[in-house]
Amino acid sequence: MRASQFFLATQKEAPTEAELISHKLMLRAGLIKRLGSGLYSWMPLGLRVLRKVEAVVREEMNKAGALELLMPAVQPKELWEETGRWAVFGPQMLKIRDRHERDFCFGPTHEEVITDIARREIRSYKQLPLNFYQIQTKFRDEIRPRFGVMRAREFMMKDAYSFHTSFESLEQTYDVMYQAYSKVFTRLGLKFRAVKADTGAIGGDGSHEFHVLADSGEDALAYCEQSDYAANVELAEALPPTAPRAAPAEALREVETPRQTACEDVAALLGIPVQRTVKAIALMAPDQAGTLQFHLLLLRGDHSLNEIKVAKLAGLADFRFASEDEIRAHLNCPPGFIGPVAVSEEVKVIADATVAAMSDFVCGANKPKFHLAGVNFGRDLPEPVMVADIRNVIEGDTSPDGKGTLSLCRGVEVGHIFQLRTKYAKAMNATYLDENGQTQVMEMGCYGIGVSRIVGAAIEQGNDARGIVFPAAMAPFEVAIAAIGFDRSDIVREAALKLHDELQTAGIDVLLDDRGERPGVMFADLELIGIPHRVVIGDRGLQNGEVEYQARTDAAAQAVALTDIVGLLQ
Ligand code: ATP
Ligand code: MG
Ligand code: MG
Ligand code: MG
Known about the structure:
alpha+beta; nine-stranded mixed sheet; six-stranded mixed sheet; 30% helix; 27% strand; elongated
């Protein structure tokens, strides 16, 4: 590819709304263009990257025996009513009505559609197991789209669904998918970790997530160096056994205000051994339906309220750093209900029961503040509902398998596999006839990869002051030729075109910068867009039969004989 015939649209500055380095770099490199909130166009350069990721995913799915199909993005309401998810999926689902007043959604996921196919097409145990997959556009109306393509509303997912006659068969395919995912992320050159995971709105039993490791990741992961234990911190399993709920909550209500509560008192009241140190901050804000909700945040360590490490913002599936102002903006607190409404003293206990008790307490104790403000609960506003589902794991805790201590890191969820068992098949009556002619319900698994999110996650992991450092497997071009004086030197033009053609013949994706720009401009662009290898061709080097070669991660260039360069790059 010649740069003069391609579309490079790099920018010096990133728009200010981009928070993460990957988002900034994707915009600056011209990989994507924003159309609206959570909506991005993949420009020719970015699409090359996306397609490379897609190709690796497709190859590994095919190798693992999955069969590609393509389902409609728009799905009828009736299917979702069969599983009850039309009502429970919530505001993330984009609902659409057609000209005949019929309801549809733009698919956030495809369990219903594939189960409908399975129940119509699969008759006999002889046809099973089967694993279908697609690579397709999903839409989820995320409460806060951000980080560019990493939390977009419209995004590209690979979703696979497997059908089985037995749990053993499901476990086998689940394992094959687990291995295939490991291969995908290894081939893509990513540092990743597989962890046990919660099953969320998809449901089912066993589940693992695959995370690209990055400090900016939204998920906190706990893992044990001494064993293979690894789990998303959201998982309750990582916690010590919980104490009974009701009694401690009652006891806490008797304490006057949170500020006066010493951690030892709370621990004593709860009768739970002191294990951890947290602070709680309660905020009040309406949810999407307008119901007033209390949100409880647990803060860890000595963070000031302006630089809070948020263990979890309850009600929002989110782990991240945030300032108090940002949290307020995030929760869209109306002026009358300025958060935080209460901050507790440090409490050195934490377990499910404690969290519930603390939230009851912190919020309950502050209800009178709203009566001051002239609010009559039940008349002006609904009774506050507590939203608290907070888990907390601390570095150095004993691992739940007892084999060592836990370490923490952060990750970007790029893949998620589930053992759905019979949840969907039962609800939708997806059955087959077994060896004895008996009707049986199918076992199911499902397996997602965030194809477009991977591009952002990879850049989050691979970048430096000069721009993107793409792993070779997903770089838009593998080699760049910077031809100095292409427009005025015959020997440069000749050598550059010849090298370009030779590399192309050797099956290498090459971009020849033939724009006749100054070297500084060319180098800045080629580095920003993250091409792994660069060859500089200029008059001076050619006189000695040499070109300059530099890998994107090298500190300096080296002279290489023109005759050796193709061999070196192969
Ligand atoms: P998250 O926890 O990040 O919201 P999820 O658990 O809701 O993700 P799944 O239902 O497990 O997502 O979907 C499978 C994969 O799709 C995820 O592992 C992720 O890589 C990708 N994905 C989910 N939501 C988005 C999004 N809004 N933008 C880009 N990719 C996404
Ligand atoms: Mg989600
Ligand atoms: Mg998740
Ligand atoms: Mg998930």
